[in-house]
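Aggregate trends can hide what the representation actually does to any particular protein. This step matters because it turns folding into a mapping between discrete strings. For completeness, the protein is quoted in full, as a sequence line and a line of structure tokens:
=====
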Amino acid sequence: QICAASAAAALCAAPPSPPEDAMVRKNAAARLTPSSGAGSSGKREKKAKDGDDPLRLLKYAILPVVGLSCVALFLSSRKASGTGGDSSKAAARTAASLADLGGPMALTSEASFDGFLAEHPNGALIDFFIPGCSHCKKLAPEFNAAAVILKAAGGPPLATLDGEVAPSVVQKLNITRYPTVLWFKDGESVQELPPQSREGAKIVEFVQYVQEPAMVEFDTRTQLEESVPELRSAMTGLQRPVVAGIGGGGSTERATLRRVAERMRGKVVFLSAAAGEETGLVIRAYGHEEAADQVYEGDFTAQAMQEWIQQLIS
């Protein structure tokens, strides 16, 4: 069962960047953790017994570090191979081993790029590079290591694309610096790997993060509305709203809102709830106080929705 703690977990799931994130984590944990003293309410105790313990939800909102030992093993073998002998032969052996283990796919044209995205609508990570770029060369072995780990775990595919070989793709995506590593969902670029995450283990963490649902799902509208007071309490110190999509069923409008949620992951928490009856989609921004709430009245296009939300958080 999803409750307000799930939304608080989503507040904690964004990659740590602005200082306010630490405050939100602290507030969410403090307000949603059941007390162990005599004043603990029966409702809280029942939740814990039923397995809906907010501590558990907050725990699993933190991104796990997967495959650190595999990355260390790869990096240590790379270091050993470079200590003597022909370095070019060592590099060739490493590339061959990575290919056998499931390294990233090399995309060589716009057609192969389009085909790759069409084949993997649920998500793929692509490293855009150019020869001679020192930062690209530094990233390459880390990206290869992440590809091996993710493939072994049954994760999404990774690929590379030389910007000089497929300039039309680079132009279409407006890529102006290298390396640029983008996460694609349903054929659209929705997230970029932060420069500070260009290590094998951190790339794996990033992929795990972007695979999580972009919206917190509530079973009913009533359930969401009953959770609003706790949500507002958890938002103390957060200078941005929580955006909820209510109703809409399987409408194109709801699908569009999901696309916006994918694009703005980590910047805004998105909620979703069925209306209990077939109604049109209503998008509501909940603030820390009810006076700050707003209802979206614009066009149901991804650009218009995103611009409205961006104004709310600016």
In short: Confidence is low (pLDDT under 50) at residues 1-99. The chain is about 50% helix and 15% strand.
